[in-house]
Amino acid sequence: MASVSVPPPTCLQKPLVVPQRYMFGPGPSNVPPRILKAGANPVIGHMHPEIFEIMSDIKSGIQYMFQTQNSMTFAVSGTGHAAMECAIFNTVEGGESVLSAVNGIWGERAAEMAERIGATVNTIVAPPGGFLTNADIEQALSKHRPVVLFLAHGESSTGVLHPLDGIAELCHKYNCLFLVDSVASMGGTPLHMDQQGIDILYTGSQKVLNAPPGTAPISFSERACQKIFSRRTKPVSFFLDLGWLANYWGCDGKPSRQYHHTGPVTAFYSLRESLAVLAEEGLENSWERHHKVVEYFHQGLESMGLKLFVKEKKARLPTVTTIVAPHGYDWKEITTYIMKTHNLEISGGLGPSAGLVLRVGLMGCNSSKDNVDMVLAALRDALQHCHKSKV
Ligand code: PMP
């Protein structure tokens, strides 16, 4: 056989080096040693009985975290985007109407995903940092008659915690499924899937759960399953097809499981551990801790003269805070300075908040008053050392 024409890369001769860093941006958050250690367990077959037991534990942990009895509850092998597509691709068929409530980038992305599969998509758009009223939503539901309404509960791009009360009732009045993105909010603020009438709910592993990115808990109500399993056409994605995933996760009541894809077993170990940590603390305690810590953070920011981007207090996300970019400064210089000097990640805006805000995420184990003090000190230092324009 001819010798290789591409030589082994010399960069791979150097050892892997990854720095320790304070991950206080909108995600991923720091992964504590206990969860990292869980992920370092040996790889065994993804269809071995021990893995099925771990998957079953994960399912119970997600049911607790989501406060749901839905048997169609599992984790997608992929990040939050994979769960978004799993939700949309399964519930929507080409030509159907979808309504996306846009209060930041995630509503825009959901709209694009639905568009790509040939749905007729309409949006209702909240002003940046604001949210939609139930009257806005009802008007759009009655006008567009969608099969699905998408709403981001925690809009990590704008820092908005969108109120949910009464929206499921409106959706169901118009025969529409209620799809909620809780990637940035789950575990940090109350959410009760069943009581709040949510039909499809998903989150990610890398925010409040403090697990590595790469798995995305998701759950479908009975109503959602009825629509999905009476589709005329197959979902466009084989990988995300709920029929296959339900079987792989043992959610379809069938006695045997078929090979669908190779589950990322080490990511499952970490996810299971992160759910165990949440269950040990208790959801209510986690919600209360995130709320108390963020309140302390917001007071600290305001006493420094900084302004919060979300004006209405009750609509501020307790996990990701958006701070109005300090007047006269270049936000990028601030985030770069803080990274360089304090080894700490905070980020700029995204989508409708790009250039307008700084974003700080204190999620899961990162949500503590000590970490707030660290961020406030870093911000104070940055404001002293970064350039302030004279205008
Ligand atoms: N939705 C929201 C609200 C998010 O904050 C994110 C991640 N920033 C996502 C969806 C997408 O998740 P991922 O980056 O894990 O694909």
From TrEMBL:
Tell me its family: Belongs to the class-V pyridoxal-phosphate-dependent aminotransferase family.
Q: What is this protein called?
A: Alanine--glyoxylate aminotransferase
SUPFAM superfamilies associated with the record: PLP-dependent transferases
Provenance organism:
Champsocephalus esox
Please give a single GO biological process term from the UniProt record: glycine biosynthetic process, by transamination of glyoxylate
Q: What is known about its subunit structure?
A: Homodimer.
Origin superkingdom: Eukaryota
Q: What class of enzyme is it?
A: transferase
Return the Pfam families for the record: Aminotran_5
Q: What is its EC number?
A: 2.6.1.44, 2.6.1.51
Per its record, the protein catalyses: L-serine + pyruvate = 3-hydroxypyruvate + L-alanine; glyoxylate + L-alanine = glycine + pyruvate
Alphabetically sorted, this entry's keywords are:
Aminotransferase, Pyridoxal phosphate, Transferase
